[in-house]
Amino acid sequence: MAAFLVLIPPGARKGDEKARIVRDRFSWLALFLPVIWLLWHRAWLAAALAFAVQALGSAVADHPVFGLAGLGLCLATSLLVALEGPSMVVAGLERRGWTVDAVISADDRATAEDIYDTETPAGEAQTRESVSLPASETSRRQHAPMLGLVGFKEGR
Length: 156
What we know:
This protein is α+β, with helices and mostly antiparallel strands. The protein has helices at 28-32, 34-40, 44-61, 67-95, 109-119, 134-138, and strands spanning 2-8, 20-24, 99-106. It contains 6 helices and 3 strands; from the N terminus they run ββααααβαα.
C-alpha cells in the first residue's frame, strides 16, 4: 500500500474537484532522470539545484583522484530526488497556499480517489482544529525543544 496526500487549492472547500492527489513513495523515474522528473512536476528551483549538483559531480568524476566522489555526488542527488521528490512537490504546493486535506492509504490512485470521494461529502465546508496530543492535556509543564524537534510545544 502507498500513501496518497490530497491537497486542495487555496480558498477551496473539503472535497473540491480541483484537489490534487500526490503519491508519496519512491520514484524509479526520479532515480534515473532526476532533473527531468523535477521539471515535469514543476519544481523549478529544485531542478536547477539538482542539475548544478549533478554537473559538479560529473566535472569532479573526470578527476583521477576524486572520480568516485563525483560519481557518489551524482548518485546521492538522484537518490535524494527519488526518495524526497514527492515531498518537494507537496512543499511547493503548500508554499503556494494549498493545504493537505487528507492522507489516504491505498493500493493505487483510482482507489485513493474513490476513498476520498466517498469520505468527503460535497458542498460541506469543514474546518480543521489544531491537533492536540493527550500529553498536552494532562501536563501543564513546558517542554524544551529536544532531539531536533524545534518548536514542539505539545509535549511528549
